[in-house]
Amino acid sequence: MSRVSPVFPNLIDRTQVSCSNEPRPIGATSDQSRAYSAAANQGAPDTEFEGQSNPYVDYSFVDLLHTLQVPRSGGYDESCFIIMGQVKELLFNALHFELFNARHQVDQDNVAEALRMLERAGRLVGYIGQSWDVLSTIRVDGFNEYRDALGRASGQLSFMYRHVEFVLGNKSDRLASAHRNMPHVYPQMRAALEAPSLYDRVIALLARRGHRLGEEALERDWTKPYQADPTVEAAWAAVYREARTGNDLYELGESLIAVDDQMSQYRWRHFVSVARIIGDKPGTGGSAGVGWLRQVTEHRFFPELWAVRTQL
Ligand code: HEM
Fold it and tell me: What domains sit in the chain, N to C, each tagged with a CATH number?
């Protein structure tokens, strides 16, 4: 029995929403046209639009977005769980975009731009971590009301999160293969598994900048998870001995470890919140639950950047 039954406000008629994800025409404005509108409206915003929508809704598919929350149980907390899960998915997408582009800029030797992207990436992970402030208001009794209705659904099946892990270098053939029955997702997942990660490309940059790196660090089977390499640690040690503002490789090292730091905190908060909600029960995704998540919290994406501190 549900503690309290949710009452869903009726805010949108789903039957009238277009399900197409093709860009909707919204036209463009200019400084001139905006100045004209502001003057014509005496400073107030526009309230008249043609057709059956408005440019804000059409630009971001907002009406479609708000039809995608479909609870499966009568549990009150499920609504919060679905929305926070979707918010996190969007943030994983935003995070992956920055990391993917940072890798591209590193490949172009454009470290300054990569640094700006990594700064945003670090902030995004911090923001994702804060989602647990809200999610941890879901208590064991509230979660149990809809847990069975999740079936085998689990965050570990998030292909967007998997792309984040892969671009950061934590590859897993097994976890990628969980998507092999999805023809709209799996080819891209395999391509990401087989591509060098952001960190692999940073190591190539260190080599281009004159650091001596072992062959294994520069050319290996990219589908395998990254393993610490002594020549990479030696290169970072050399970079960090020149720790000063303006040394872009030093700044890059610091930006990367900031992302790794935030990812560790995110994983830790997930692990602790999950322990608080389900204790030692197995996960819906088929794993041992917190037992499996605990070992994930120990993982570091850029191990040499952590190890190098010991010798500085
Ligand atoms: C609030 C209740 C939640 C619980 C009790 C929970 C529990 C778990 C458990 C037990 C696992 C291990 C895999 C398995 O299911 O067997 C897992 C993995 C995972 N969960 Fe959650 N989770 C929750 C919320 C979320 C949310 C809202 C997200 C974000 C969309 C999320 C993202 C993930 C991800 C990405 C993994 C895989 C971690 C990795 O591969 O390192 N979880 N979760």
Answer: 18-65 (no CATH), 78-311 (1.20.58.480)
